[in-house]
UniProtKB/TrEMBL annotation:
InterPro entries per UniProt: FldB/FldC_alpha/beta
Entry keyword set: Iron, Iron-sulfur, Metal-binding
UniProt cross-references to Pfam families, sorted A to Z: HGD-D
UniProt similarity note: Belongs to the FldB/FldC dehydratase alpha/beta subunit family.
Superkingdom as given in the UniProt entry: Bacteria
One Gene Ontology term of the molecular function aspect: hydro-lyase activity
Organism: Prauserella flavalba
UniProt-recorded name of the protein: Benzoyl-CoA reductase
């Protein structure tokens, strides 16, 4: 394996522009109070279009935890959460954000032990306190309790609304991806839940909800999602002009940032750069020899590190469950004239909410479409909901698709659970297995 000092990854230039947009979003949120804006903290699905239409500033808990981890600034928040009583085996997204709630509430030195650190002053404690909470989780028991815990930390002094979202078991005979009685019944149920959420928002803001604004917002999301999916599809080419790590870097934009023209412009820029690379024969990995599928939520502490490590082994991670099976992945379902139905259906499509039957179909399709040689599973230590199906999916890949697999353990936002030597050994073994298979064929 090549030296890790050599960087053969070739990340998209638009990643830098995207980082500027993300930074501007958080800076604006940090000043919400000065601007007289109401603030909602929420977790789970992409409820931000509803908040944007209602004229509310929003903080997505997982997103802020991921940002802290990506910038290696998660330590003070995680320590504050642990000292408050949350064990380190708890989902590190929630533990980090709960720690932010502790810091935001300013319990003081005697209760947190986290005082006068640069990280605390400059980022982890800068979140404005919420005026209310909204929880939109299914398929994850931690997520369903997360906002209740935040609510308690902040003294039970702000309202909370919890969406009831059904898990899509897919066990009925007619059940399938986007079809069947379960799909239709669940869609109707979630639309009803969203109507109740809108009533809650009207009470909190004291003004009527702007349904026309929501339709406009969803038109931006639909256009941006279409561009994103088209850019991803260009990476079916060999060698791939961009990689999984580029799609990870653009999750924030499609998942929680304001939907407006600059969102479309950003994804148009991403697609144009990918298309230019494809036309010029420029690859996302300089010497692509292996095409891998990545299953698992991203290890945000190690984004750049993992991109370089795989590239240095001539392994192009092309796609994965986290990037390709989430985040407005079916833009044709979005109807700006009837936005609630498209919102509801995308919440049901979250891969964390799907039974094994659907996950199997989705992985099989991606492996076929993108010409995958091997599957690498990131077994996130504190995210059981995402790792539950991984061994079953590994059997499908090996026994039905004839694709070798490998596992490595890490975490979504806690660097302590990642061991580089484990990934080094298992990645090398996976690539040797792919070479042996090629030699036999």
């Amino acid at each position: 394996m090549a030296s890790l000092l050599e960087d053969k990854s070739n990340r998209l230039r638009m990643t830098g522009r995207g980082g500027e947009l993300v930074g501007a979003y958080w800076d604006e949120l940090f000043t919400a109070r000065e601007r007289g804006a109401q603030v909602v903290w929420y977790n789970g699905h992409a409820l931000n279009p509803l908040f944007q239409a209602a004229g509310i500033s929003w903080c997505h808990g997982e997103a802020f935890s991921a940002r802290l981890a990506a910038q290696h600034l998660e330590g003070p928040a995680q320590l504050a959460g642990e000292e408050y009583g949350y064990v380190n085996e708890l989902c590190s997204y929630s533990r980090t954000h709960l720690g932010c709630a502790v810091l935001t509430n300013d319990f003081g030195e005697s209760e947190t032990g986290i005082v006068d650190t640069v990280d605390q002053r400059e980022l982890a404690s800068r979140l404005p306190e919420p005026d209310f909470f909204v929880n939109g989780y299914q398929g994850c028991s931690t997520g369903q309790q997360w906002d209740q815990m935040s609510y308690r930390i902040l003294g039970k002094k702000v309202p909370i609304f919890t969406l009831s979202l059904p898990y899509m078991f897919g066990s009925k005979p007619d059940a399938g991806y986007l079809v069947g009685e379960e799909w239709e019944t669940a869609t109707d149920y979630v639309v009803d839940q969203l109507e109740k959420l809108i009533e809650f928002l009207e009470v909190q803001t004291g003004r009527p909800f702007d349904h026309d604004k929501l339709g406009e917002i969803m038109s931006y999301i639909k256009a941006a999602s279409q561009l994103r999916r088209e850019a991803m599809a260009l990476c079916m080419a060999k060698p791939a002009p961009a990689t999984y790590w580029d799609w990870v870097a653009s999750i924030a934009h499609i998942n929680f940032m304001p939907a407006e023209q600059r969102l479309i412009d950003y994804f148009q820029g991403v697609k144009d750069e990918v298309a230019d690379r494809l036309a010029s024969g420029v690859a996302g990995v300089a010497d692509e020899r292996y095409r891998l599928y990545f299953d698992g939520i991203m290890n945000w502490n190690k984004l750049g590190w993992l991109a370089r490590k795989f590239a240095d082994a001539d392994a192009a991670v092309i796609c994965g469950r986290y990037t390709h099976q989430n985040f407005w992945q079916e833009p044709q379902l979005i109807d700006p004239e009837n936005p609630l139905r498209g919102l509801a259906q995308h919440y049901l499509l979250c891969s964390n909410s799907q039974g094994f039957k659907t996950l199997k179909q989705a992985m099989t399709k991606d492996c076929d479409d993108y010409g995958i040689d091997g599957v690498i599973f990131h077994a996130s230590r504190t995210c059981r909901a995402y790792t539950n199906h991984q061994h079953l999916l590994a059997r499908v890949a090996e026994n039905q698709l004839g694709i070798p697999t490998a596992f490595f353990e890490g975490d979504i936002a806690d660097a302590a659970f990642y061991k580089d030597e484990i990934l080094e050994t298992r990645l090398a073994a996976l690539l040797e297995t792919i070479d042996a298979k090629r030699a036999r064929n």
